[in-house]
Amino acid sequence: MSQENIQFPEPLLQEVARQIAKFPEGKQKSSLLSVLHLAQAHFGYLSEPVMDYVARLLHILPIEVYEVATFYSMYDIKPVGKVKLEVCRTGPCMIEGAEKIVAYIENKLGIKDGETTPDGLFTLKTVECLGACGYAPMLQAGEKFHEHLTEAKVDELIEQYRKNPIANYLGLENYGS
Amino acid sequence: MDRKLLLEHIGVEGIHTHDVYRKNGGYKAVEKALKSMSPDDVVEEVKKSGLRGRGGAGFPTGMKWSFIAKPEGVPRHLLCNADESEPGTFKDRYLMEKIPHLLIEGMILSSYALGCNQSYIYIRGEYMFVLQILEKAIAEAYANGWLGKNIKGSGFDLDLAVSTGAGAYICGEETALIESLEGKRGNPRIKPPFPAVKGLWDRPTVVNNVETIAAVVPIVNDGGGAYAQIGLGRSTGTKLISASGNVNNPGVYEITLGLSVEEFIYSDQYLGGIKNGKKLKACVPGGSSVPILPHYLVCKTATGEDRLMTYESLSEGGFATGSMLGSGGFIVYDEDQCIVRNTWNFTRFYHHESCGQCSPCREGTGWMEKVLHRLEYGHGKMEDIDLLWDIQRKIEGNTICPLGDAAAWPVAAAIRHFREEFEWHVKEPKLCMTKNYGLVTEKTFETVNG
Question: Which of A16, A41, A69 corresponds to the end of one domain?
Answer without folding.
Answer: A69
